[in-house]
Amino acid sequence: MLFEIQSIGKIQSPFTHKFGIPRQPELVPAAETVIVLNDEFGVESVRGLAEFGYIWVQFVFHEAVAEGWVQMVRPPRLGGKKKMGVFATRSPHRPNHLGLSLLRLVRVDDSARPIRLICGGSDLLHGTPVVDIKPYIPFVEAQTDAPSGFVQGAPPQLRVVWQTNHFRLPENTKAIIEQCLAQDPRPAYQDLPERVYGMELAGVDVKFRVVGDEVFILQINELA
Ligand code: SAM
């Protein structure tokens, strides 16, 4: 069957490039995310929503569409060494390229169109098309004792070491950089202590290196 769906809005996030985006929501809480609804949605469409603490956001991995999909992927959680079926993972390279993130709803700004939903830190690229929003209902959806396959608990964190002058950066930008780097954004299979990586986010270009369980921030350049 063929269905046609239209986006209902767009994501605004500090993540302007795919590299370095956290792999799940709330791993970088400083990275506030805003869902901007299309102008056709009025105050009626969000009536009652502000009373929920979390929302399910369905979206399209639009920057993965051209790359297609695969039957099996190498989840970063398994160090990129083992393959799992695409339906056992949260990979963007899936049929239909649909994503689902549970976002903390901070505030609903419905004072004027476009309506804006201000959310906690997401795992979404700036510009991601949103296709639906639903309230999160803990009594049916929170199954905290369910087996969770190869994903056991939160991922380990790196210790962040600043080796460059950063006192001019806004506090929130510093927090986003630190929280992102602590997640170890390198591809899972790479352990190259000499390699310098670059990551663009929140209006800056960050150069860093990872040695053992420490990440060294080498240089920060403001983007024009
Ligand atoms: N929580 C969602 C889910 O389970 O469907 C997304 C999980 S997926 C592992 C998160 C990754 O998707 C991010 O780290 C980023 O690399 C990638 N991503 C986020 N937004 C994207 C977009 N619009 N297009 C392509 N890839 C995207």
From TrEMBL:
Q: Where is the TsaA-like domain?
A: 5-145
Q: Which PROSITE patterns match?
A: TSAA_1, TSAA_2
InterPro entries under this entry?
Answer: TrmO-like_N, TrmO_C, UPF0066_cons_site, YaeB-like, YaeB-like_sf, YaeB_N_sf
Which Pfam family is an annotated match for this chain, by its short name? Answer: TrmO_C
Q: What name goes with this protein?
A: Putative methyltransferase, YaeB/AF_0241 family
Organism phylogeny: Bacteria, Pseudomonadati, Pseudomonadota, Betaproteobacteria, Neisseriales
Question: One GO BP annotation here?
Answer: methylation
Database matches in NCBIfam families: tRNA_TsaA
Q: Which domain of life is it from?
A: Bacteria
Gene3D superfamilies, per database record: YaeB-like
Stated family: Belongs to the tRNA methyltransferase O family.
The UniProt keywords, alphabetically, are: Methyltransferase, S-adenosyl-L-methionine, Transferase
